[in-house]
Amino acid sequence: MTRPESVMTWVVVAIFVTAAAFFYFIGGEDPAFFDSSGGTVSTLSVAGSTTVLPFAEACAREFNREQKDVIVTVTGGGTDAGINRLAAGLAEIAMASRKVDDAEMEDLGGHLAEHPIARDAVSIVVSRPIREAGIDDLSQDQLRAIYTGEITSWKELGGPDREIIAVSRSPGSGTGEIFSERVATPGVAVYRDSSAEVEKYIAGSDRAIGYLGLNLVCNEGLGVVAYEGVMPSVETVKDGSYPLARTLYMYTWGEPDENEWAFLDFVTGEKGQTIAEELGFVPVST
To answer: Are residues 192 and 234 in the same domain?
Structure first.
């Protein structure tokens, strides 16, 4: 399906994103585009959300092992980068840690086809010393005050007399956009480009706070805190009680072709959903 002219202006943006993104090839040390009999092998490019990235990588590894017709490659860069690459024709599937809203869909000519692949929670995490000092639950008002700069010390919340370092995702992050919509638009000095970088920063600090997907909160340097009295967990995502639960998506440009369907069927099928669960996500079917 031809991309509308209005979105082709994103090609330049997508090229810059491509230059900045780390490229992951999944499925072998020596990428081959011919099978053992000399026939060609199709490639399928998946790009976008760094929250979805480990899930997509794991699925691509297994998918590539099981069949020889399609080689799936996976690129990070963030939700917006994935959508931009899809619109520019530089990827066949975009990974998104948020739903594409109506305005975006209209801007893209209504051509995106949405595929839910797993469920997740935007989990509030603090540095381990802060959690051990008694900070174990934050209300929406408290979290908003932290991220807008109204509260600047943990002492104001009953914790140690230390400055709060609030960490946020860089613009273009689907996780960051969900946080902005449901909690507060951050006015902070520390931004990180990926979930892994947020995790590393908070775990290495003695006073930081941030937000991560449920699959990343097992780091021993992190302390997970309840939000509005509810801890993020598989159970609270399933029963809908956690306020920052969300669905993760893959998007295609119109109805998927045969190769796209093959990978999407794997991701949303029994093997893919088992991988999701093993990585700490919640299967989309539950």
So the answer is: yes
Pair (165, 252) in one structural domain: no
Do 259 and 217 lie in a common domain?
Answer: no
pLDDT tens, residue by residue, 5-35: 444 444 444 444 444 343 334 444 334 445 5
Task: Report CA Rg, the chain.
Answer: 20
Kindly report the CATH number assigned to the domain that includes residue 36: 3.40.190.10
Q: Give the SS3 label for residue 286.
A: coil
Cβ pair 225, 137 in contact under 8 A: yes
**For 15-25, b where at least 16 C-beta lie within 10 A, e where not — what string?**
eebbeebeeee
Is-contact 228 139, C-beta < 8 A?
A: yes
Chain centroid offset of residue 165 CA: 22
Structure tokens at 135: 């900070």
Domain tally for the chain? Answer: 2
- Does the pTM surpass 0.70? The reply is yes
Could you tell me which residues are beta bridge partners of residue 137? 226
Query: Does 108 lie in the same domain as 13?
Result: yes
Q: How wide is the angle at C-alpha 204 spanned by C-alphas 55 and 137, nearest 5°?
A: 75
Please tell me the distance from the alpha carbon of residue 169 to that of residue 155, in angstroms, as a whole number.
Answer: 25
State the burial class of residue 218 (Cβ atoms within 10 Å of its Cβ: 0-12, 13-18, 19+): exposed
**Tens of pLDDT along 142-165?**
999 999 999 999 999 999 999 999
- Residues 25 and 93 placed together within one structural domain of the fold: yes
Please give the residue range of the domain that contains residue 102.
Answer: 5-119+247-283
**Dihedral of the CA atoms 73, 78, 80, 81 (nearest 10)?**
-50
SS3 259: helix
One-letter amino acid of 172: G
Backbone φ/ψ region at 46: left (φ over 0), alpha (ψ -120 to 50), beta: beta
Confidence of residue 63 (pLDDT cuts 50, 70, 90): very high
